[in-house]
Amino acid sequence: MIATLLAGAGFSLSSGLNAYLPLLILALADRMGSAVDLESPYDWISSAGGLIILLLVLPIELIGDKIPRFDRYNDLLHSGLRPVAGAFCFMAIASQDDYLNVWAAGALGLALALATHLWKMHSRIAITTATAGLGNPIVSMLEDGIVIVVAICSAFVPIANLVTVPLGLATLRRSYRRMATGESRVIRIFQPKPRA
Question: Domain-by-domain residue ranges, the chain?
Answer without folding.
Answer: 2-188
